[in-house]
């Protein structure tokens, strides 16, 4: 299974804020949508960063007050790690593990197709293991 197939199963809903948005607006979106990350895009809709709950916590530790009224660009992670739609689940898992990230945008020709989370990867790996176990049980039963 690859990133495009994961997005086909889970949907391609993307939560994003413009890079001119205030951090306060992004926090409200995270809270109201019950999500852990929003993408940050420029005026052309191109990915310029990603803002996670961890980014907000780090920012709040560095500056206790006033930071929520600053632009998201001061808090977001720049240089976002992304994958192409053809990336396999194992490749995505390796990238997430090595980069210590929980969300990764899926791209095609510079356009954002969607977002894959560590939960999506785990769900696929569990389904894969269950399928293999069922095949082994069937093989043993017919042997």
Please provide a written account of the structure:
There is one protein chain. The protein has 143 residues and is α/β, with parallel strands linked by helices. It has a single domain (3-142), classed as CBS-domain, CATH 3.10.580. The protein contains five helices and six strands, in the order H-E-H-E-E-H-E-H-E-E-H. The strands form two sheets. It has a three-stranded mixed sheet with strand order 1-2-3. It has a three-stranded mixed sheet with strand order 4-5-6. Strand 1, helix 2 and strand 2 (37-41) form a beta-alpha-beta unit. Helix 4 packs across helix 5. The relative contact order is 0.18. The mean pLDDT is 94.
Q: Could you say what the CATH topology is called?
A: CBS-domain
* Percent helix range: 40-55%
User: How many β-strand stretches?
Assistant: 6
What would CATH call the architecture? Roll
Strand order within the widest beta sheet: 1-2-3
Shape, per Cα inertia axes: elongated
Strand fraction = 15-25%
Q: Separation of termini?
A: 29 Å
What does the largest sheet look like? Answer: 3 strands, mixed
CATH top-level class? Alpha Beta
Indicate the structural class.
alpha/beta
Give me the number of helical elements: 5
What is the element string, with H for helices and E for strands? HEHEEHEHEEH
Radius of gyration, in Å, reads 18 Å
Low-confidence stretches: none
If you average the pLDDT, what whole number results?
94
CATH superfamily: CBS-domain
How many domains is the backbone divided into? 1
Question: Can you tag this structure with a few keywords?
Answer:
6 strands; 45% helix; 143 residues; CBS-domain; 5 helices; 3-stranded mixed sheet
């Amino acid at each position: 299974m690859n990133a495009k197939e994961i997005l086909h199963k889970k949907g391609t809903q993307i939560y994003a804020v413009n890079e001119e948005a205030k951090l306060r607006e992004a926090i409200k979106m995270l809270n109201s949508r019950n999500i852990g990350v929003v993408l940050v895009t420029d005026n052309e809709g191109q990915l310029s960063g990603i803002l996670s709950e961890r980014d907000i916590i780090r920012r709040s530790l560095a500056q206790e007050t006033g930071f929520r009224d600053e632009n998201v660009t001061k808090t977001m992670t720049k240089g976002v790690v992304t994958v192409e739609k053809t990336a396999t689940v194992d490749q995505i898992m390796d990238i997430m593990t090595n980069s210590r990230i929980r969300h990764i945008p899926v791209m095609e020709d510079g356009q954002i197709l969607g977002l894959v989370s560590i939960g999506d990867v785990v769900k696929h790996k569990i389904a894969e293991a269950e399928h293999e176990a069922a095949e082994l049980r069937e093989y043993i039963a017919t042997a």
